[in-house]
Amino acid sequence: MMREKVAELLKNALEENESLFLIDLNISEDNQIRVILDGDEGVTVEDCIGVSRQIEHNLDREEYDFSLEVMSAGVSEPLTLPRQYKKNLGRNLKIKTKNGEKIEGELTAVNDEDFTLKWSAREPKPVGKGKITVQKEATLPYKDIMEAKVMITF
């Protein structure tokens, strides 16, 4: 019952700010509510406060004893939704596929089923000794991805 109420309140809060979207909603056995958000333009402290108030002010403390935590998806968190990939177009990602392959490259295209990465790789020359740098590109379906993280550069 509580989960449905919190989910409905969260849905209403996110409808008020359509640039925000839900990454995770977790309610523990002892009613600790944990909401993780992301946004097309990022998530501000004010966004978290607004969502928190929307939930907290509409849940009856007499009926439910709960704690509430609303936070943004951290920079070290893996991407989980196509919408997160879209907001990171042009950035470098580190990908682990389900078959164990690891790829680091620039996110150049995104749609609802897959995304495209481009990167440079050193390969042996076709003729003679030494290596040459070649440009590679791969389109990867989300279903084949174990983990995708944005690479932070300073």
Number of domains: 2
> Could you give the count of β-strands?
8
Q: What is the CATH H-level superfamily of the largest domain?
A: K homology (KH) domain
What's the main sheet like? 5 strands, antiparallel
CATH architecture of the largest domain: 2-Layer Sandwich
Structure description:
The chain has 154 residues and is an alpha+beta fold. The protein folds into two domains: 2-72, GMP Synthetase, Chain A, domain 3, CATH 3.30.300; 82-150, SH3 type barrels (Roll). Helix content is 21%, strand content 42%. It contains three helices and eight strands; from the N terminus they run αββαβαβββββ. It has helices at 2-16, 45-56, 82-87; strands spanning 20-27, 32-39, 67-72, 92-97, 102-110, 114-124, 131-141, 145-150. The strands form two sheets. A five-stranded antiparallel β-sheet has the order 7-6-5-4-8. A hairpin with a 4-residue loop joins β4 (92-97) and β5. It is elongated and about 80 Å long.
